[in-house]
Amino acid sequence: MKLKHTFTAAILTSSLLTSTSFAEPDKYATAEELGLMVGFPPPKDKIVDSSSLLKGPGNRWAYLNMRKLYPSAGIKAADEAIPVEVAIDPAIQSLKVVKPNDKGADTDQSVDMDTYLRETYSDTLLVVKDGKVVYEKYLNGMNANHPHQMMSVTKSFAGLFGLMAVADGKAKEEELVSKYLPELKTSTAFADATFGQVLDMTNSMGFSEDYADPESGIVHYAGVLGLMPQQPGKKYASSIYEYLPTLPRDEVHPKHGEIFHYQTPKTDVVNWATNRVTNKSFEDNMYDVLWSKLGTDGEAYVLLDKNGTLFAGGGLNATPYDLARFGAMMINDGKFNGQQVVAPETIKALSDGGNQKAFADGPSSGGKMAEEPWSYRAQWWVRHAKGKEAFTALGVHGQWIYCDIHRGVAIIKQSSQPVSASDYFDAYNLNAYDAIIEHLTKK
């Protein structure tokens, strides 16, 4: 199941990465086992920098240390911390996880939890049931209060803020996004698209996310942001705000609302519109409407582009326990510690999901997403399989916030997988979540 949840910074990846050569004695080795960034200075073949960021094994170190590689802006913690409740269920550690067919195996195999965690390059696996942490496992140097790069999970927070602005009456999904951003009236991708269509990524936009193609839209976009070198002889916008109005409509699928097409600049438009109608930055919204009410106490920050602008497609870094607080609130109809943080209608909008036909007809339907009914709603991936309904924030290389409100379970997964996305890894993770939730539901 190759999920197309690529993130703006995956941008830094593929053929344009001048990848350092690493000695790799064990393909599942941790950063410590690999000796990455050890020494003064580290050996040349153990140095991790932005040129080896989104390609294993350098990301095993990078995802725990993003602030050392990129400029960032901090997100304030709550004025008063609310302790995370922990009630560990030891039986989860004994569960078996179905490992998908790999390398021509005739049948799926069942493996123990430790094998699953290691083979999916896990840094964190944390399970919340009815507001309490019932399982937590940290690997590769992670701990409950260490920030980790969340990739395109950032998009889901941007989408949530967009829906919250709608619930607050500051925006309407049926209004043209250009009403809030007149600057986009020159873009055929956005001028006559509604805010809701951009939220759900169903507006028509001609833009390729082929990272291996130096002529693709995503590579040019990365050059605008300063995340990849600009190519000689090419003209670049000076900022993301100058770039977005230049984006064209998709000539193959020119009608807005017909298909879901995952394209990172759409998140920038969602974030920009939400900034405009709330008069708040992404970071300020994180604090004001979420972190301050969730009693967070960990380090959180967002990455910035060359102009000091938020990296809306994937710059969030946050700790497992702060994300556990967030997950606990999302599966509790938006309530936390006796306070309504997110309106119930917003949670319902995510749970109900988006247009399943638009999803199935689009280029992001494949693997398990083709085998099961899925949709995309306000920058969240929504699973509609009977008995397994959930909405989830996804990021490349294995970042998840999986919210099953029907069974009261949230799962936080932080990883440093060597590839951005694959059917194999995503199916492996979903099989683990299904096993955990089935166990917790039977209790």
UniProtKB/TrEMBL annotation:
Which molecular function term from Gene Ontology is one that the record holds? hydrolase activity
* InterPro entries linked to this entry: Beta-lactam-related, Beta-lactam/transpept-like, Diverse_Enzym_Activities
Top EC group: hydrolase
Query: One Pfam family name from the record?
Result: Beta-lactamase
Q: Which domain of life is it from?
A: Bacteria
Per the UniProt entry, the Enzyme Commission number(s) are 3.-.-.-
Which residues, by range, are in coiled-coil regions? Answer: none
The signal sequence is 1-23
Q: Which UniProt keywords apply?
A: Hydrolase, Signal
Q: Does the keyword 4Fe-4S apply?
A: no
In terms of PANTHER family, this protein maps to: BETA-LACTAMASE-RELATED (PTHR43283), BETA-LACTAMASE-RELATED DOMAIN-CONTAINING PROTEIN (PTHR43283:SF7)
Q: What is this protein called?
A: Serine hydrolase domain-containing protein
Q: Which organism is it from?
A: Rubritalea tangerina
